[in-house]
Design brief:
The chain contains 14 helices and no strands. With 257 residues, the protein is an all-alpha fold. Helix 1 runs antiparallel to helix 2 and helix 6 runs parallel beside helix 10 (134-144). It starts with a helix and ends with a helix. The model has no long low-confidence stretch (mean pLDDT 91).
Length: 257
């Protein structure tokens, strides 16, 4: 991997991990545009998620480590369980979908239209994260499972689940960030164990270290400013963005490639 490829991939990871545009889909399409194979540098792409995860932990440390934070842990565990169960059961199928870059191109477009009308489909309520019951968390976790399809976006799916649970727009988005920590940490840890031998190849560890620093910085600013943006503007921009990017990639994949 060249330094410019490392820079591009880690910036894409950081910017897209917590926005409702699908980091997995963007990384699959970016890897394709860079001329990489569908499974090339797979361990690297898994590992640089931890930089993005650390950015949320930095921004929301009081949610996890203050004296009043203990209530959030069982709620997040409940939200994490559906993805843990289905991810384990369908791991081989999910691995197969990650080998097909046209899938995120298509799902970016389809769920881009969903995002345009998400607040009509799921009108926001007045609830806060602290009002969530275990059942509410499990329901949001079931929405999160939709993101196992590349291009759907874990963030978009959990935000939709939060709105369905009558959270406010901002609270649904914040819960999506918080739920990312157990979900991405468990998924990333599991994948790293499966592909541990790849870490011994060449400069992969150095690339992972640099990639994590870059993904941390870019994710930090993406998360920090996203809440303010959606409170004022909503989700429509991201719907239009998804439709445009997905359509352009499908044109490339089907016609120009």
């Amino acid at each position: 991997m060249t330094w410019i490829e490392n820079l591009i991939l880690s910036v894409v990871e950081g910017l897209t991990e917590f926005l409702p545009v699908s980091s997995t889909g963007h990384l699959m399409m970016t890897r394709e545009m860079l001329g990489m194979g569908p499974s090339e540098h797979e361990t690297y792409l898994i590992a640089i998620q931890f930089g993005a995860i650390a950015s949320v932990l930095t921004l929301y440390w009081k949610r996890f480590f203050s004296k009043d934070a203990l209530w959030i842990y069982p709620v997040l565990i409940m939200g994490f369980i559906p993805a843990a169960v289905l991810g384990f059961l369908f791991d081989d199928l999910l691995e197969m979908m990650l080998q097909a870059p046209w899938i995120p191109g298509l799902t970016l477009v389809i769920f881009g239209f969903v995002l345009l009308y998400i607040e009509k489909i799921f009108p926001p309520g007045e609830k806060k994260i602290s009002d969530l019951s275990f059942l509410d968390a499990i329901k949001i976790g079931l929405f999160q499972c939709l993101a196992m399809i590349p291009g759907v976006s874990r963030s978009a799916a959990t935000i939709a689940g939060g709105l369905n649970g009558k959270l406010t727009r901002a609270e649904a988005t914040e819960f999506s960030f918080l739920l990312a920590l157990p979900t991405l940490s468990a998924a990333g840890g599991y994948k790293l164990l499966k592909h541990w031998d790849e870490l011994k190849q060449g400069d992969e560890l150095m690339n992972i270290g640099i990639g994590n620093v870059i993904s941390f910085i870019t994710a930090y600013f993406a998360v920090k400013y996203f809440i303010g943006y959606i409170q004022k503007k909503g989700f429509a921009f991201f719907g239009y963005y998804r439709i445009a990017v997905g359509s352009l990639f499908l044109v490339y994949w089907l016609i120009l490639k």
